[in-house]
Amino acid sequence: MINEPKDRVLVALDFDTADDALALAQQLAGKVGGVKVGLELVNAAGFDIFARLQDAGIDRIFYDAKFHDIPNTVAGAIRAATKRGVWMVNVHTSGGKAMMEAARDAAHATSETPPLLIGVTVLTSIDQLTLASDLRVTGPVSKHVSHLAALAQEAGLDGVVSSPLELDAIRATCGPDFVTVIPGIRPAGVGAQDQKRIATPATAVAAGAHYLVVGRAITAAADPVAATDAIVAEIAAI
Ligand SMILES: O=C(O)c1cc(=O)[nH]c(=O)n1[C@@H]1O[C@H](COP(=O)(O)O)[C@@H](O)[C@H]1O
Q1: In angstroms, rounded to a whole number, what is the distance separating the alpha carbons of residues 74 and 91?
Q2: What residues act catalytically?
Q3: 124 within ligand 1 shell (Cβ under 6 A)
Q4: What is the mean pLDDT of the chain?
Q5: Global pTM?
Q6: Are 27 and 223 within 8 A, CB to CB?
Q7: Which numeric CATH code is attached to 5-236?
Q8: Would you say 215 is a known binding-site residue?
Q9: What ipTM does the predicted assembly reach?
Q10: Where is the Orotidine 5'-phosphate decarboxylase domain (predicted)?
């Protein structure tokens, strides 16, 4: 699945029109491992965006759905997402083990080649202080992330989303093959913006990340293709 450094890079198509998303996806075809379709794009462009990307030859689509609901509802949503032929889809681990099991069962019952099912742990926009004050979760972020990753693994998920800072903890708990999908990626010189737990592409890959989710470092760059090439070169040099 990951044959060369570029395969690790998933570009977040966080745009408010299908045209912008399709244009960048086509510009980066062959240069990245896949594209991510998330809440902004799907709400702005509609669910046709999946077929439009697939018609344009883009077949590795990570649907960043972040489903979080009762097991029956999430199972239905995962069935529908699986039928769209997405390559990867996510749910919130904080929906609980029964919800994640229902998601896994739904994906496997719907397709012989189900999407990779990934659990979001603690959002990368949440720091230690906010985890304690807003969510009333005490203790280190990495401990809570490891707990949620273990739960996801027990539920039969393929991997988790976390920040680059918890990669050691996840590997120690879940082993090296449990897939890690890592946003909060900031090449040197790019500001953190709303992200709180961040690292450079090279640091994240050296720490064991399988996939990097990269949005604004590419989409807001003056030259998105050059920015992508620089990220791939950075991780290739590790
Ligand atoms: O599930 C995600 O992809 C995700 C989880 C998370 O904890 N943090 C996070 O930033 N993301 C997504 O990753 C992308 C990061 O975008 P940038 O901060 O612009 O690189 C966005 O599309 C987010 O929705």
Answers
A1: 8
A2: 64, 66, 69
A3: yes
A4: 98
A5: 0.99
A6: no
A7: 3.20.20.70
A8: yes
A9: 0.99
A10: 8-231
CA of 42 relative to ligand 1 center, distance in Å: 15
User: What is the atom index within ligand 1 of the atom nearest the CA of 217?
Assistant: 20
pLDDT at 75 over 90: yes
DSSP H or E segment with residue 119: strand 116-120
For the chain, what are the domain ranges? 5-236
H/E run at residue 225: helix 224-236
Residue with tokens 């697939």: 54
Rg (C-alpha) for the chain, rounded Å, is 17
CB of 15 within 8 A of CB of 219? Answer: yes
What is the rounded end-to-end Cα distance, in angstroms, of the chain?
19
For the record, the structure tokens of 29 come out as 């075809």
Is the pLDDT score of 1 beyond 90? no
pLDDT digits (tens, 9 = 90+) for 84-98: 999 999 999 999 999
Tokens 């090449």 appear where? 187
Nearest residue (by CA) to ligand 1, atom 15, is 215
